[in-house]
Every structure is written in structure tokens, then in C-alpha cells.
Amino acid sequence: MLIKEYRIINNCTESEYQVAQLYAVAMASQQETGGGEGVEVLKNEPYEKENGEKGQYTYKVYHLASRMPSFVKAIAPTGSLDLYEEAWNAYPYCKTVLTNGWMKENFSLVYETLHVDQSRGELENALNLPADQLAKREVVMMDIANDKLDSPKDYIPEEDPTTYHSEKSGRGPLNTPDWKKTCEPVMTCYKVTFIEFKWFGLQSKVESFIARTVRNMLQKFHRQLFCWTDRWYGMTMDDIRKLEEQTKLDLDKARAMGEKKGEATD
Length: 266
What we know:
266 residues; alpha+beta
């Protein structure tokens, strides 16, 4: 198992990030869906646990077979590469679990995230990991403006934080090496990921591939989140729930009728 803690500093408040994240998830899902593949939302509803925790529960299926690396497709039966995602969003804490029906207990990708206002990535154990997990954890400090993307094809000029300026909020561009130390407002996503793929001879290779994919996904997502500030700035949670309802309908239609999007990654 790999344990990586991604620390992602954002030029917004913790409360703004809740809206921004959900907006960006809805938009990104539409970008990745079409031609029989993409995101299928099965449940999106409030929940309450016995311990009193309350939040929003979502259950999604990711149909992404064509975008899996060739060495995974070579060993997986046809139709076995769908990922199932359950998420419990008790903001500012969230937990997400991804599994696969074919791999069963031999594969899991778990995210635990804490969103902290007025933080610049300095908390050493924000999610209170036990000693055995801390010993395995690797901390990855991310810079959404200056870190290189995984591929030049991922670069979109309109989604470049070093050039984007928000008319509504006055934020940006994030074009200095020390913007993470000086930007206001500020918050940090502390996202611990637990990556496990039990397959003799492939475990290390696949876990490393997943870790690289997760990091690139987080980089692209948070670049979009910042550069879409003028789209989500001022939205309410009621606005977001209405957007999610419409997005579900749009995803179902695109998956059935649209063109396939995205590319395989090796």
C-alpha cells in the first residue's frame, strides 16, 4: 500500500471552497463523459451516521475502460474496469472510497480530506493518522500554479493560474514563486490517499501509476477550480444542488448519445 498526503493551497476561503469544489466536480464530470463512458451518478442524498456525523452521500460509477493503461487492460476481462465511488461529504471533512467489482478486496483507493481555513500547508498531521500510517506516509506539497502538468496536452491557456485574473473577486494571477505564502484569502486541502493494488508482479507498478494519475488529476482539477472563480463565486449551496440535478441528467444523456472523451494513459 502507498500512503500519500497531498497538501493543496488555494486562494479562497474554506467556505468558498465547498461551493467551488462541487461546481468544479460537476463541470469536470461533463468534460469526461460521452460515448458510453464517463460518470454515472446513482445517488446524491443527505446522510446521517449513528455517531451524529451529517453530510451528503454520493454513489457514482466511472465507466473509463478505454482510458486505462494497456498493461491493466491486458489482464482485465471485458467489462471489468468500472470503478465504484462512495463519498461521505461532511464538510470540512470528507471521505471517498473507490473500488472495483472484479478486483474486490485486492484494490481500493481511499481519500480522506480535511479542508482548513487560513492554512498554508503547515499542519503536520491534520487528519490525525496513527503512527504506523505516518511512518509510511509521503507528503506531497503541491503548487497549482507552478508545478508542471503530466503532459503538455493537459495545458489549457484559459486554465492557467499564472495568467488568470478574477473580475468578481479580484484574485489572481498567481504569478509569483511565493504566492502560497502571500495570497489572501487562503485555505489548504489536506488529502491523504491510501492506494492498494494486490497483484503479484504488478502491485508496485500499478500503485505508482495510480499515484501519478491522482496527482495529475488533483493538479488539473485545482487549476480549473481557481480559473473558474468567476463562474462559482457568489453561488449558494442551493444553487449547487440544482446544478447537480441538472448535471446528472446531462451526464446520462451524454453517456448514451455523446462522443467518447479522454485518452488512454500508459
